[in-house]
Amino acid sequence: MRQFVFEDITSEEVARRTGLYTPLTNSVRELLDATIRTEVDPDTIRAAGELIDRATAMLRSTQSDGPHGVRYTADGTGMPWGNPAIGIRNAIAPPMVVTHEGDHRRVADVVLGAAYEGPPGLVHGGICALLLDHILGEAASAMTGTLTLRYQRATPLGAVHLEADVVATAGRKLTVRGSMSDSDGITVTAEGIFIVPRRVAPTGPDDREGPR
Amino acid sequence: MRQFVFEDITSEEVARRTGLYTPLTNSVRELLDATIRTEVDPDTIRAAGELIDRATAMLRSTQSDGPHGVRYTADGTGMPWGNPAIGIRNAIAPPMVVTHEGDHRRVADVVLGAAYEGPPGLVHGGICALLLDHILGEAASAMTGTLTLRYQRATPLGAVHLEADVVATAGRKLTVRGSMSDSDGITVTAEGIFIVPRRVAPTGPDDREGPR
Predict the structure, then answer these.
(1) CA A99 → CA A109, A192, B32, distances in Å?
(2) What superfamily would CATH give domain B96-195?
(3) Is the ipTM beyond the 0.90 threshold?
(4) Strand, helix or coil for residue B48
(5) What CATH code is assigned to A97-195?
(6) What residues of A are in contact with residue B23 (Cβ under 8 Å)?
(7) pLDDT digits (tens, 9 = 90+) for B60-108
């Protein structure tokens, strides 16, 4: 596994960057939705494409060589901003905002629109899997070993609720259970075995590894 | 389940629309990657955001009320263009291009970049789940009932290969096995039980339902 990246920045700097990138990514999310749903004529599509390409060129004038990585500050604040489930810089992410309820329980409420559709009007089963894998992994603070998903019924697009609880621990293996639900109850349940990497604790500013 | 939508258009019209939407969505994919990786100054970020918002407003001047849905032509050509795994109008999708090898086998080759990163330099486990759920579901032409994923080792970002085979059928239940691999071999295996909806065959131009 590649190393996690340490950035020697203050919490004020983290807040400043959050305030800078969040509106940009939200703009890209809106564009992504509009790209799926637009019914404008070909000339307008091409004109919109030119504006998008101009924006991309501006953003690419200075950029990191590879992917974003997962960055940490000195106080351990994580910045998994490129993550496709929770990343504030990744327009694939709804983003899911995960709330901690104690050490071993995580919950989230997410609204899933047109970009997450599989069968007509329904959430793609693989999107349910993406969000459940992520929240179970956060509850475990570990990497996925095995994940079993049971689709009880289809999940309509719209507001969904996710939960994950660590239910057992044995050495570096954690068993986690979770679910996705809508206002009528559970739509998908998940159970996973998660594995804590051998070196999980950051050992110094230049030598940090972690689970996700 | 909502009904699938019939569109009375020719294969030439399908090709024309594919040629119109593909470059637009590719532009949004590039923008999404640039949004994650950019290191430009705040003024440039805000200027790029304004261009993006202008493009979105142009595209939204005429748009469908809800999600894209899954549309079919008279000859049965599917247009799942809003799909987050394979949709040519959805920038979340790499897109995965699924090849049929007989009735019950599907394969795909996909390159996964910065937008699909979980742990540093590695594909998010939930993205593996999304793509595997989708390709297994295509092999079955059915909805996911249960899906079990076994992560053998981490999947590095880059080129991956996916396979799915129907290995057993019992009534409306199909058992499908699949895998994701990189150049060194399998990284994730998947096994699923998929359920064929009771009404799967289109029964007429205005009354079509289907699995995905």
Answers:
(1) 9, 19, 26
(2) Hotdog Thioesterase (3.10.129.10)
(3) yes
(4) helix
(5) 3.10.129.10
(6) 49
(7) 999 998 898 888 888 778 889 999 999 999 999 999 999 999 989 999 9
